Amino acid sequence: MSDKPIRALLDVFENVPNSWYGEGKARLARHSVHTAMAKYADSNGTNVWASLASIAYTARVSTRTAQEVIDFLLADKRLMQRSDPHPIYGTKIYDLVLPTPEEAEIAARERREIVEKERASTRERVARLRENKARVTELSALPKDAVTEDSALQKNDVTESSALR
Question: 0.70 cut: is pTM over it?
């Protein structure tokens, strides 16, 4: 376990709205790379000097995808690249642009909406399950020889071919 402060990592996990990552299939890769970079950052989001291979491995994407995401974040001004490389390792140094309080509120609202949507879906499933269970209980309470409307229709179903026999 690292002694490195994790504030930047938590900010990326919790306070970045989905709109930062665009639309489509690339959204998950963008989030993963951004989170990986936050892992390597200082607590204030600065000084990310991990290699592209390390970032890609941590994000579980290819190095090509990691580079494309870094280019996307740079173009979108969510990441800043320093002009000089790391003095010892020669890697590029990046600074994360952490979300503003307004953006953190948008992210919190998105989380609440997702949770509420899931709860509503769960409530609907539970209501259908209870309705089906009540129907089964009601039918199982009938005596075995009781004639229900459905069974009566099945027994007395007269077709043209059976009527001629």
Answer: no
